[in-house]
Amino acid sequence: MLRVMGRGSRVCDGITRRESMRVGALSLFGGMSLPQWLAASEAGESATHPARAKSVILLNLFGGPPHQDMFDLKPNAPENVRGEFKPISTKVPGLQIGELLPKTAQLMDRATLIRTYSHRYNSHNPYNVLTGYDGGNDAQNYFSKRTDHPSMASVSQYFEPGPTDVPRYVTMPAFPGYNQALRRAGPYGGYLGSQFDPLFTVCDPKFKRDTKDDYDPVEAIGYPTPPSLDALPGLTASRFDRRRTLLQQFDHQLAAVERSGAPERMNKFKRQALELLSSSKTRTAFDISHESDRARDQYGRNLWGSSLLIARRLVEAGSRFVTVHWEAKNGNHWDMHGNTFKMLRVHLPQLDLMIEGLILDLEARGLLDETLVVVMGEMGRTPKINKNSGRDHWPQCGFSLLFGGGTRRGMVLGATDHQAGYPVDRPVSAGDLAATIYQLIGINPALTVPDLGGRPVPISHGGQPVWEVLA
Asked: How far apart are alpha carbons 404 and 364 in whole angstroms?
């Protein structure tokens, strides 16, 4: 929380010595400056509230997964709409999902399925998924830039810094767009600053064969690894030097309040930053050699299963927000403009195994109730199948699958028309989903943050929590 509990004498401006030192820690570890902290603390208890979810694992199926073939099948629709797969029953009476997700079907009594994720942003980046903002367009928002809205994880760090011995926000297996050598918008700190960017892992997946084209999927084998120490976001050598300069500035400000003891205490914060640079806790979380063969098989021995296994290890170690973006070369994406059903016959068994592996593992470790798991993509796909046996972009309707972290179990929210083209009941916007996640992780969804001009921007972008899905 913003306020540090405990006794402490107050200085002339009403701040306790203990709180002053806490501000020093916030500034050093990518948190708020003193003026920002004062403004946030003035809001009192409205800034944060008890969190239902301590951590978030978000699996983004990059490109836009076809909801009609996964979680909203329409078996009575025309042939050029319904696709090739049959629906199967689940653990929830009356709920059916696609036949290539049999393991997930047995877990639906633990899940909330939102069938009506609907927004305006027709673009291939995780901007709407990670920020809740759907007013963008490719001309302005395709690539990341300093004026972008910050991700939910970045906002979370801004208000609630979190642990200092493990990375609070991690994106795997690499930055979105890495296989095309471009930086897609979404995961960054935006106008809050690059100190709120995630730690991006790196990867070098291997493939058993060459792909024929972008719609010929070949399983990606490998696992993400942390970057070299000098690539840690916000804590590179040069930026650490700059932080030391900022620290000296804060020392000067603090000296006007209390001179005795400040250098010693601030040295403690410096040591904590250095510990993060070389944290054995971080390195251990990424070392899946500690996992049994059974655990590796439970998630799947590919890049995506290994990423989710590491995500579990990270949240177990204390990380707050971990995203996995299913995007790599050789057909490892969900932008299925062609060959949709053959691609799904490769992708869905991997996804099915991963979901089961993660949920059962979290449950067995007693972590599911405090970990919010989100599986979704940035959009859905067109109802009508095109001439290339593909489905095209369709932000008007998609799905979001939620487990744990304070969400209801065995629930389906929303309904679509006869072709799964449009919501007919309870549409959920990108802002609504972001507000729901903020509510679950203990951040007031009605808060604002300042943009580069100091103007307040609502963190939920007009969205409201989807109260029906909260337990």
From this structure: 13
Q: Give the residue carrying structure tokens 């030097």.
A: 241
Amino acid found at 406: G
What do you get for the CA distance between the two ends of the chain, in Å?
23
- Written as six digits, the tokens of 260 are 């005795």
Taking the C-alpha atoms of residue 98 and residue 87, their distance in angstroms, rounded to an integer, is 5
- On whether residue 455 sits in a domain, the answer given is yes
Contacts of 381 by beta carbon, 8 Å cutoff, 6+ apart: 64, 65, 66, 67, 68, 336, 340, 391, 392, 393, 394
In a domain, 24, yes or no: no
Using CA atoms, how far residue 258 sits from 11, 40, 246, 252, 325, in Å, is 9, 23, 18, 10, 47
Residue 357: which domain range?
50-235+282-469
416 lies in some domain: yes
Contact assessment for residue 114 and residue 429, using Cβ atoms and an 8 Å cutoff: no
In this structure, is residue 220 part of a structural domain?
yes
The Cβ-side half-sphere exposure at 3, using a 13 Å CA radius, reads 18
Asked if 184 and 143 count as a contact pair (C-beta separation under 8 A), the reply is yes
Mean pLDDT by 10 residues, the chain (471 residues): 33 40 40 47 59 97 97 97 97 98 98 97 93 90 95 95 88 93 95 93 94 95 80 42 40 44 43 57 90 97 98 97 97 97 98 98 98 98 98 98 98 98 98 98 97 97 98 96
Q: Are strands 411-413 and 111-117 parallel, antiparallel or unpaired?
A: parallel
Number of structural domains (the chain) is: 1
What are the residues whose beta carbons fall under 8 Å from the beta carbon of 224, sequence distance 6 or more? 172, 173, 174, 201, 202, 203, 286, 303, 306, 307, 310
Task: State the CATH number of the domain containing residue 336.
Answer: 3.40.720.10
For the record, the structure tokens of 319 come out as 């990380």
